[in-house]
Amino acid sequence: MENIVEVDNLTYRYGDKVALAGISFSVARGEIFGFLGPNGGGKTTTFKILSTLFSSGPGQVRIFGKDLVRERIAIRRKMGIVFQLPALDKKLKVRENLAHQGHLYGIAGRDLKRRIDRDLERLGLADRADDRVETLSGGLQRRVELAKALLNDPELMILDEPSTGLDPAARREFWNNLESLRRDQGMTVLVTTHYLEEADRCDRLLILDEGRAVALGHPEQLKSEIGGEVLRIRAKDPDGFSNRVTEKLKVKTLKVGGLVQIEEPKAHNLVAPLLEAFPEEVLSLTLGLPTLEDVFIHKTGRRFLEERE
Amino acid sequence: MNFWMAVYTLWQRELVRFYRVPSRWFGAVGTALLFWAVLGTGLGGAAYRAYFFPGTIVMSMMFTCIFSTASIIEDRQAGFLQSVMVAPVARAAIVMGKILGGATLATLQGLLILVFAGTVGAVFQWGPCLGMLGSLFLISFVVTAMGFWLAWKIESTPGFHAIMNMVLLPMWMASGAIFAASPSPWLRFFMTINPFTYGVAGVRRGLFPTADLGQVPSLSLCLTVLAGASLFFYALSSWVVEKSDERR
User: Fold this and answer.
1) CATH class of A228-289
2) Can you list the residues of chain B whose pLDDT is less than 70?
3) Number of H helices, E strands in chain B
């Protein structure tokens, strides 16, 4: 399949601080490709480079087969970008915002009007066209951002934590829109997120931590790599307890955020032996299938701190 | 083609934003008129009020420029300008659109003061009047372009206001707005190279075409100097924006 984005050993630094320590990946046409990681992991830097806000080194990034440094303008023409922070002028009406966007992409007159009507219709915004953006709810404003990014019929859509600040219903709806665009237009989508439920909806996921790629694959594939089930135990003395469990039951343990964690294909078989062997020490115990958080823990040894607004 | 479409759309946005926030119409004009009423009366009589009038127009223009360029700082971190920066448009077009928008607004704000032109004995003649409009627009362009350049380099809005006031107020004071000449040679030199001098002089020539203004620069000199300064500061602003792209 044709690759829309190819990234080869991408590096970036802010002064002395390394933001990206050499990441590589490629994205095929029509994929929804996610970047997951904690804040400061490198996903926003990656977004800023791919969206052409920051410059990469020559030869590190190719989009549509073109070098990002040398053919920036040609690449921009076929990209749609949604920023984490609102990029709408709130004093302007919805239609005016879209008209400015069109003009910046060289679209004007009847063609512009046709496209604006089409995108507003497509996203269910037609009745709000002449309202000022500041009068719209957060979810609707996000939809206008999406409409704005769609105006130039982009082949590639890049979104930076697009659903930050939205309630769960609005977030789901935003993702439904993204998925239908991908299905109907064959659009390729790159999206950064720190919400696990969003990451689960990507075709492939790149997990970033401290500027490095720690995992790459389909969310289910990443989870299955951990193997079967995850057992989390709250114990009185986690350090001593995890050593004693390893000794007695011959299983590998991880200590994560004060909890002792066991990843095993059939972890449920360990529940009874654990409780029999350490009746005094186990305070509570949960058994579950691995989540993307477990993938992150497995790869980095740390908890994925998910911020909630 | 694309260049001018982008310039047009950014220019138009500045204007629309301005008239959607009606309070902005009064700040700059009100401050300048207060200065005129108080300083003009305090420092002399009717004759001085007439002398001070061109400087008042330029002051109203100057305050508008400061406010409209301050928005660049917030716009740049977040908001509208971010999506402009990833559009397939030359940086020079973005800079031109923003500066033209600010300069147009500043010119209009300066012109609001003209309502009082009758009270200071101004004389209307077509040629000088057009020259005055040209001078006012060009000095607005110069100041907006300077503001753009500084706003791009400064990260905080209060810091920007402080620097703009520190740079622009002395330039305005030493422009022939308040006093005509100085015995100090270095101040005379500064007045000769100060673009505000030509802005104020251009307005003065346009308002009082029949008066004997002595050493005040002629309209054609004013327009030439201001056009040159406009080009210079436009090039400077475009250059800092281009350069911030290459930073990595």
Assistant:
1) alpha beta
2) 1, 78, 246-248
3) 10, 0
Q: Return the CATH fold of A3-222.
A: Rossmann fold (3.40.50)
Cβ distance of A83 and B82 shorter than 8 Å:
yes
Q: Residue A129: which of A92, A85, A87 has the closest Cα?
A: A92
Q: What is the percentage of chain B residues whose pLDDT exceeds 90?
A: 66
| B6: chain A residues, CB-CB within 8 Å | 103-104
Angstrom distance (rounded) from CA B205 to CA B18 = 30
> Is any Cβ of chain A less than 8 angstroms from the Cβ of B125?
no
Yes or no, beta carbons of B82 and A85 under 8 Å apart: yes
**Single pTM value for the model:** 0.86
Judge whether B87 and A105 are in contact, CB under 8 Å. yes
Taking alpha carbons only, the member of B172, B174, B181, B173 closest to residue B213 is B181
Interface contact A76, partner B, CB < 8 A: yes
What pLDDT score does B1 carry?
64
- Same topology, domains A3-222 and A228-289? Answer is no
**Every domain of chain A and the residues it spans:** 3-222, 228-289
Q: How far is CA A24 from CA A6, A111, A276, B23, in A?
A: 8, 39, 48, 52
What's the CA dihedral at B27, B28, B29, B33 to 10 degrees?
A: 100
ipTM over 0.90: no
**CB spacing of B247 vs A55 below 8 angstroms:** yes
